[in-house]
Design a protein that fits this description.
single chain; 209 residues; alpha/beta; 7-stranded mixed sheet; 7 helices; 7 strands; globular; binds S-adenosylmethionine
């Protein structure tokens, strides 16, 4: 069952979540974050793009000398990330409101890219992943951390059933990982189960162009 998520719906949802996002989502999502950033294997001064950076909960996890660009569709979420970057006094961080489906970056501009808990919250995951591939250099790492549709029959069906409700709340509960990656030409080099009940999967791909 495919339930479409609209851009305006996402903007409205995250405008609403921005003031409370860290209170509600930080503790649930925290364990996977460290592992996801570690998988980038950043060697400063490499450049990294974070897609859908939200309130910037990953900011403290980056090596200080790496050059980070973070983008997000939601001004309200990004405002929180700007505050956090200022508090952490991170000099090499650039934050921009931008739709990840059509990024304002050159081909091969970044050494690597990451999206944590974002790919199921974007209206067009195929377009976002194609853009991530375009802006990351050949051989660069792309890391995705997300809840994906279960490959087991019963949990997968449950995720399909709750999809219309989740879509209203701003994310897709039943995004299938393998067909999506195949569609954009990404092959996972690593898939690791993370977080509470192993309910999220960390995926590391190398951008082979
Ligand atoms: C669940 S939040 C995850 C935030 C952050 N990555 C984290 O780990 O906490 C999803 C984020 O994706 C952003 N987003 C959704 N669609 C987007 C798009 N097309 N372009 C850029 N950001 C988008 C939302 O505004 C929101 O901040």
């Amino acid at each position: 069952m495919d339930v479409a998520l609209e851009k305006r719906q996402v903007e409205r949802a995250y405008e609403f979540y921005a003031p409370v996002y860290d209170l509600i989502f930080d503790w649930i999502f925290a364990p996977g974050r460290q592992q996801a950033i570690a998988q980038l294997g950043l060697k400063p001064p490499e450049t990294v793009l974070e897609v859908g950076i939200g309130t910037g909960l990953n900011l403290p996890l980056y090596p200080a000398a790496c050059r980070l660009t973070g983008i997000d569709l939601s001004q309200e979420m990004l405002d929180k990330a700007v505050e956090r970057a200022q508090k952490l006094a991170m000099p090499n961080v650039t934050l921009k409101v931008m739709d990840a489906t059509s990024m304002d970056f050159a081909d091969n501009e970044f050494d690597s890219a990451i999206a944590t808990y974002t790919i199921s919250a974007v209206p067009d995951p195929v377009a976002v992943l194609r853009e991530m591939r375009r802006v990351v250099k050949p051989g660069g790492v792309i890391v995705l951390l997300n809840h994906w549709r279960s490959e087991r029959r019963v949990p997968g069906r449950v995720e399909d059933l709750v999809a219309p409700l989740c879509t209203r709340l701003g994310w897709k509960s039943n995004l299938s990982m393998k067909p999506l990656l195949a569609q954009v030409g990404l092959t996972p080099e690593l898939i690791a189960k993370v977080n509470l009940f192993n309910g999220w999967r960390l995926v590391k791909c190398v951008n082979r162009k």
